[in-house]
Every structure is written in C-alpha cells, then in structure tokens.
Amino acid sequence: MAYREKKCRLCEQQAQEVDYKDVNLLRGFVSFQGKIINRKRTGNCAKHQRLATRAIKRARFLALLPYVGDQ
Ligand SMILES: [Zn+2]
Q: How far is the CA of 33 from the centre of ligand 1 (A)?
C-alpha cells in the first residue's frame, strides 16, 4: 500500500451533510489545481465523497472555490 488507510474524516465528525460554505473543509478535498481529489486519496467513504463532491460543485458555482487553482 502506497498510503495507509485512513478513516473517513466526515464519518469521524459524524457529518450528515457537507456544508458548501465550509470552504476550509472543502479545500481539504481539492488539489492545488482545484480538482476534486479522488476517494482513495481523501479516504472518504462513498457516501461522504458524494456529499463532498456536491458541496464542492456548489461552492464553485458560488465562487467560493476556484474551478482552476493554477492560472
Ligand atoms: Zn464517511
């Protein structure tokens, strides 16, 4: 294994949903290029990755997160 298995961060917080306004949290799920990091790297479970992806897309739409980080 290249990196150790991590427990889903959002499960640890017992998050029922991901707030699109929680930019600090969402930043942990996007790369420097502003791309959404895949589930293997974030260690998120499928449920929370789906919620995180949705929150990131919403945050992008509202310009809270960049579509492209490196311009
Ligand atoms: Zn989870």
A: 24
